[in-house]
């Protein structure tokens, strides 16, 4: 095992088989641990691998394997995280994302991302001819009221 000064986030499990330490506050780490227990996930169910990241981050990202690929063996759900320059932080975020996905599958609820996509789709959807006609009538009515307030009159 490497010295903690060189490796701030050891890859092995703790002596009691619990989750490894992450560079986040103690409360966030505890929340993640509680969420893991609530979902019935054991650290041994997770397969973790590290690959090189791509994109912004410069030489540091190109030389180190900061991207984390996390697979939940029982369900086959796979998450890839390269959001941060730090591998340790990416490990924490990958677990959060993985637990989100597992929770969606178990509880059958839609993710926030899915809900956002559907909202945008509804907004972009073309209005029916009747709905468009009603909207234009309302706009004309409002503009006529405004013109009356300003002293202009439509003929």
Q: Could you describe the 3D structure shown?
A:
The protein has about 160 residues and is mostly helical. It is built from 5 helices and 3 strands, in the order αβαββααα. It has a 3-stranded antiparallel β-sheet, covered by helices on one side. Helix 1 packs parallel to helix 3. The N and C termini lie far apart (about 85 Å).
Topology readout:
Layout: H1 26-39, E1 46-51, H2 58-63, E2 67-72, E3 77-81, H3 87-107, H4 112-124, H5 129-149
Antiparallel strand pairs: 1-2, 2-3
Order of helices and strands: HEHEEHHH
Strand content: 5-15%
Uncertain regions: pLDDT < 50 for 5+ in a row?
Answer: 1-15
Looking at the structure, what is the overall shape? Answer: elongated
Could you give a short account of the major beta sheet? 3 strands, antiparallel
Number of strands: 3
Using only CA atoms, what is the Rg? 26 Å
Straight-line distance between termini: 87 Å
**Average pLDDT reading:** 81
With strands numbered from the N-terminus, the spatial order across the biggest sheet is 1-2-3
Q: Can you count the helices?
A: 5
Q: Which structural category do the helix and sheet elements fall into?
A: mainly alpha
Residues in helices, as a percent range: 40-55%
Descriptive tags:
3-stranded antiparallel beta sheet, 11% strand, 155 residues, mainly alpha
